[in-house]
Specification:
Number of domains: 1
Number of strands: 0
Oligomer: single chain
Shape: globular
CATH superfamily: Cytochrome c-like domain
CATH topology: Cytochrome Bc1 Complex, Chain D, domain 2
Strand content: under 5%
Radius of gyration: 21 Å
CATH architecture: Orthogonal Bundle
Helix content: 55-70%
CATH class: Mainly Alpha
Distance between the termini: 54 Å
């Protein structure tokens, strides 16, 4: 194989690898966006009875923390939050969520964090 053809093949390989990496990041970003939107929908359906789910000036009718407040607590991490959501809380029945739902709700809550 001539040197030019070899160089072209190597460069083409690098370009193809770079394109795959960029496309994988786009898919991951789209997936994260979908997770946040799905988590918000779940939270509005399952959690809004007690929590303020969408940031606003309104207060909830209970003393349950608003989701934006939870997201901005020091030490709040998605995995820890997901584990908490998977457990029944505040002496209420049927508050425990399956792992996938807990992960989605956690992703939404963490999206509210102000850096």
């Amino acid at each position: 194989m001539p040197k030019i053809a070899c160089r072209t093949a190597v460069i083409s390989g690098f370009v193809a690898a770079a394109c795959l990496m960029v496309s994988a990041r786009c898919v991951n970003a789209q997936s994260a966006t979908n997770d946040v939107a799905t988590g918000r929908a779940l939270a509005e359906r399952l959690c809004s009875e007690c929590h303020v789910v969408v940031p606003s000036d309104k207060r909830g009718w209970t003393d349950a923390s608003a989701f934006d407040s939870i997201s901005n607590r020091q030490g709040t991490m998605a995995a820890k939050l997901s584990r908490f959501i998977q457990q029944p809380h505040m002496h209420m029945m049927n508050t425990a969520r399956p792992p996938r739902e807990a992960d989605l709700i956690s992703a939404y809550i963490m999206s509210l964090r102000k850096d």
